[in-house]
Structure formats: structure tokens, C-alpha cells
Amino acid sequence: MTRLKISVQAADFDLAAEYAAIATQPGIGGIGCFIGQVRAGSDLISLTLEHYPGMTEKALHAIAHQASQRWPLHAITIIHRIGTLTIGQPIVLVLAAAAHRHAALSATQFLIDWLKTDAPFWKQERFSDGGSHWVEARQSDQQARQAWDIPLG
Amino acid sequence: MITVLYFAWVRDRVGTDAETLALPAGVTTLGALLTHLASLSPRHANALARPELLRAAVNQLFARPETPIAPGDEIAIFPPLTGG
Predict the structure, then answer these.
(1) DSSP 3-state of B62
(2) Which fold has domain B2-78?
(3) Do A74 and A97 touch, CB atoms closer than 8 A?
(4) How far apart are CA A36 and CA A123, in angstroms?
(5) pLDDT tens-place string over residues A37-92
(6) pLDDT attached to residue A147
(7) Residues 40..59 of B with a Cβ closer than 8 Å to A: which?
């Protein structure tokens, strides 16, 4: 049984608290962690993250379910922020805990790869000249997600 | 009646984030609905002009042009996803 925590929130997350919440569970030998943050770019001031309330949570649960089917995971944590975030601020936290490192690390990468293409979030960039721009989806993100569809043998 | 939700630049172009409308006779798929919506106003036409740039969900599940729709459904139209 995989312990699941999924949250879509404006507030920042507390990495130490999220780690502590799963690390004490029996049987865990490794925890994979990914944090995505706002990357500095030319004249970028902030990112505003929008989502589809209701569907986002369902999509994240479906992605977590996929991961728990593929690897023996003790815990999955996905926290994704919404609203306006400035350069260097965290956007997303993914934790995956398992008995061994392979499952923990692979599941962490799987979760963020699938989140990119299967969870309804959109980013709008704001620039110092007052302009704004909706970020376009990357083909490489789609390819990263599809790479997980290849049978592993 | 159906509810149509728009997100990100699709919402900006249509000029509203949600609308409720009657499903016209003969419109039974998502693809047919997109064609109908594009006929509602110049803003709709502009937002929906290039279906290949759009993604959609029916009742909060990803959908394709051939996905059936029926009265009571919640349909969302949005650009490709850019979270994470």
C-alpha cells in the first residue's frame, strides 16, 4: 500500500517536513526527490501557474497510481504550486520512497515526466518590459513521457 | 445544456473562462462541438482556429475529436500542458 500525498497549493512547501512525514515509515531504504523551480531567463520577472481545479487532482492521482503499479513504492508525495512565483522559487516537489534506490529514483523521474504532459497546468511568463507570454509545450517533454511506454524487456 | 471551460491563452482569446450553452442538434462529438463553438463569435473563431494547437477534456478526462459528448457534460478546452 503506497502512502499518497497530493496537493495543489499556492503556499510554499516544507521539504524537511515532507521528508520527515514519509522517512519514518518502516521498510523504506531510499527516497527519490525532485524539486522544480522558476529558472532565471532574459528579463523574466515571474511565472504564473494556472490549473484546472478538480481535474488536476484527478490527473495527479492517476499518475501516482501508474507509478505505484510499476514500482514497489511505500510513499509518493506530489506538491504543485499555483499562482505567481518569482525566480528561484520552488514550483513542484516529487518524492518517491521505496525499499531500494532503483525504484525510488526511477519512480521520481517517471512522476515528473508524466506530470509535465498529463497534469493540467499552464505557465505564463511575465517580463520586465511589462509583456507576458504563455509558455509553449516542449516536444522533448512529450518524448520523455513516451519513453516510459517502451517495454523494459 | 453543457458547460464549456477555457484555460490559459484559449481563455484570453475567447474572453471568458466559462460558458453554458445548449448542445445543438447533431453535435455529438468533441470535434463537432469545436466547430460549433468557433462559429459563435469572432473571438471564439480566433481562439479555436487551429485545433492542432488545442487539447481538451470531457468530464475532466482527456478527450479526442471523436470523444462523444452529451447534455450535462463539462468540456474544457486548453493549450498543451506546461506544468512541472
Answers:
(1) strand
(2) Ubiquitin-like (UB roll) (3.10.20)
(3) yes
(4) 13
(5) 999 988 999 999 999 999 999 999 999 999 999 999 999 999 999 999 999 999 99
(6) 87
(7) 57
Please write the tens of the pLDDT for every residue from A96-126.
Answer: 999 999 999 999 999 999 999 999 999 999 9
Predicted ipTM?
Answer: 0.94
Quote the minimal CA–CA distance from B62 to chain A in Å.
9
Using pLDDT thresholds of 50, 70 and 90, give the confidence band for residue B34: very high
Sort A43 into a burial class: Cβ within 10 Å, 0-12 / 13-18 / 19+.
exposed
The string of DSSP letters for B63-84 reads: E-TT-B--TT-EEEEEPPP---
* Residue-level pLDDT at A153: 42
Our CA-based measurement puts residue B82 at a distance from the nearest CA of chain A, in whole angstroms, of: 5
Q: Which of A49, A118, A134 sits opposite B79 (nearest CB)?
A: A134
Which amino acid type is present at position B53?
A: L
DSSP-assigned letter for residue A124? E
Å between B84 CA and nearest CA of chain A? 5
Q: Which CATH number is A3-147's, of 3.90.1200.10, 3.40.50.300, 3.90.1170.40, 1.10.630.10? A: 3.90.1170.40
- Would the CB atoms of A49 and B76 count as touching at under 8 Å? no
Chain B interface mutation, best of A79, A122, A124, highest count of B Cβ atoms under 10 Å: A122
